[in-house]
Amino acid sequence: MRYLPHSDAERKQMLDVIGVNKADDLFASIPKLAFKSKDFNLPDHSPEFLVQAKLEAMAKKNICASDAAFFVGGGAYRHHVPASVDHLIQRSEWLTAYTPYQPEISQGTLQVLFEFQTQVANLTGMEVANASMYDGSTATAEAALMARRLTRKNKVIMLSGLHPQYLDVVKTYLGDDDGLVCLSEADDANIGSIIDDKTAAIVVQTPDFYGNLRDIKSLADIAHAKNALLIVVITEIVSLGLLEAPGKLGADIVVAEGQSLGNPLNYGGPYLGLMATRQKFVRQIPGRLCGETVDASGRRGYVLTLSTREQHIRREKATSNICTNAGLCALAFSIHLSLLGQKGLAKLAKLNHARAVKLAQALKEIAGVELLNKSFFNEMSVRLSKPANEVVEALAKKNILCGIPVSRLLPNEKEAENLLILTATELTSDEDIDRLSSGLQEVLS
After folding, report:
1. What is the pTM of this model?
2. Cα–Cα distance for residue pair 325/138, rounded to 1 Å
3. Where among 291, 306, 338 does a domain terminate?
4. Rounded mean pLDDT of the chain?
């Protein structure tokens, strides 16, 4: 039996109610260029074992992070995930298919989300965190919308150094909006004269896309002087094991990508968005909040305390249409962080920075490589004497994945062609750094 067993008569009845002639009319808003325009030369059917063999052969064309000297970051980082994390997330108390709508049978899931919120609030130095967002980029866009609701102002200033893909997501969320102001690096220094009484928020990433640490305290002072909010974006959550929490420096909303803890690299997701803010702003936070309570017998229990999304309340009152939380990824994050503890996270962060310092020292010794950072955590940018894309492709053939060419993400930037972003984590060995150094010297000579 087909999965969709509707008869032709039933389909016609539905189309008549909607007011269209055929099902294809439902997709009229999609540009024609988005539809398949060529034959992909795929068989209509094939035995399972042949499909498996075909896909395995295709997969072998990839270079795996674990099989190469790996220096790629840019918002997704390779860290060690303890085997115990994968074991624990599969326990029946937590492994669930969907949102815990029925608290009486979802206590395990609700409790771990409550603990997750506590951990995120402590990490970011904020008073309350939600559970949770899709990923760091959508969390950033939701934070911009939240700031507009809170301030009832429209202007959102994006400082330079925000991850280009995060900026693209923000533009998609906000649409063709003249209230979105994107600054260049030169403009950043004049932020005091650019911000005005119509500004809802300043958005800054630290460490930024190029690895630079940003002065959060001074930006918070500038924003608050104009009754605007400061939104801090973090793509490498491990950095908070070493850096001061943004909330303690004056941030009003902190959003982050939590992939680095508990969640290994994969092809774009699922990842884990974090969002935290101040208690007074809690009514405008998107997503949902888990809370602790007691039942009729006085026993501790957990519930969905706040869920201001359009599935639960009137659409015009909803803070977002976030329709699920990254529950399993949040659980993995929470277990990994619990295993590390406060001292363990600080030790991991220090080890990441030490590995990055070792990488930076090696890069400084290579002719044709100019280190551009004055400060960094575990990610840095360099200017090469040759186009970065060519260098990356050449070293990939030697099983060295040497970083991200900036031109791939910013193809219209004139000075991006020779820029390369490299990352070192606790998994970056001395041998990896030596291989990179030798490879760069050979390619750039």
Report:
1. 0.89
2. 12
3. 338
4. 92
